[in-house]
Design brief:
With 302 residues, the protein is an alpha/beta fold. The chain has two domains: 191 residues, Rossmann fold; 79 residues, Orthogonal Bundle (DNA polymerase, domain 1).
């Protein structure tokens, strides 16, 4: 059986759970259960009347279910937060924890197709019941669509050339595997930067496959409705675009633009920022290199 340590090392574990300012009889939600590391730490701090609900759309995460009467694991995407809280009879909660990183398990299982290290079919689906996979993105998206995702999600300056190279190659037949894709990308990846650029390309495809930006926005927009006054958000993001969206939403309740002021110059925002941005220290990065780009932001419902 897969253990939590093998599945995923929880990033910024204590800082993230501390950020929830836990009331031992409160109700909390971990929307990215994964290996259960953050959830276990929350449960340690809850009393007998406390409750924790967790979301994870990946079937593999169900193997890490925690045997605790206070715990409920929901095998769904957290974009449906309000719907499934209501289904479980929960109208309001005291805190939400989210860690938007891909789990170590997903990176380390070759057939999932998340990693550049393994030969695998192009997949990258966090929920393997979904139809859209990396195969569809690579083989069916137009050149302009590919250029857009490589530019926006991969932050790649040569996105137009990469998109054109993929489209030209697939005219000879479908691109089926990661090794085939890496071979096509070789001309765009100088040896000294090969791993970095491949990681950016894979990241862009993964974000598109799993609709991660749309899911993040849908999730954030629901949080003011389910959190009690004084309830906390504790959110770890890894991609600059995700972090920017979280930061803006906490500041203004919007993803772009500025909130409208009333006649007295006041603005109505759902949250206030708590503390400063938190990032992993050198010791954590040494133990878990995948934590190096993590950024934790904490907010409180007004």
């Amino acid at each position: 059986m897969t253990t939590m340590t093998e599945y995923h090392n929880p990033v910024l574990l204590i800082d993230t759970v501390d950020g929830l300012n836990i009331n031992d009889n409160g109700t909390y939600v971990d929307v990215t259960f994964g290996g259960g590391g953050h959830s276990k730490e929350i449960l340690k701090r809850l009393g007998s009347n406390g409750r924790l609900l967790a979301f994870d759309q990946d079937q593999d995460a169900l193997l890490n279910r925690i045997d605790d009467s206070r715990f409920t694991l929901i095998n769904e995407n957290f974009r449906y937060l309000k719907r499934f809280l209501k289904f479980h009879g929960v109208m309001s909660i005291d805190g939400i924890l989210a860690d938007f990183g891909v789990s170590s398990h997903q990176f380390d299982v070759p057939e999932r197709g998340f990693s550049t290290r393994f030969e695998a079919n192009l997949d990258m689906r966090m929920n393997q019941q979904e139809e859209l996979s990396a195969f569809h993105v690579v083989n069916e998206y137009s050149e302009s669509q590919l250029k857009q995702i490589f530019w926006q999600y991969g932050e790649l300056r040569n996105a137009p050339k990469i998109a054109r190279g993929i489209v030209n190659e697939r005219s000879n037949g479908d691109i089926l595997t990661s090794e085939h894709l890496k071979l096509i990308l070789k001309k765009f990846t100088p040896p000294r930067k090969e791993n970095k650029i491949l990681a950016q390309i894979y990241q862009a495809i993964r974000i598109e496959v799993n609709q991660e930006i749309e899911v993040l926005k849908e999730f954030l927009l629901q949080t003011p409705d389910v959190l009690k006054k004084g309830g906390r958000l504790s959110i770890i993001s890894y991609h600059s675009l995700e972090d920017r969206l979280v930061k803006r939403f906490i500041r203004s309740g919007l993803f772009e633009g500025e909130p409208v002021k009333d006649v007295f110059g006041r603005i109505d925002v759902p949250f206030k920022k708590v503390g400063k941005l938190i990032v992993p220290n050198e010791d954590e990065i040494k133990l878990n290199n995948r934590s190096r780009s993590a950024k934790l932001r904490i907010a409180e419902k007004l």
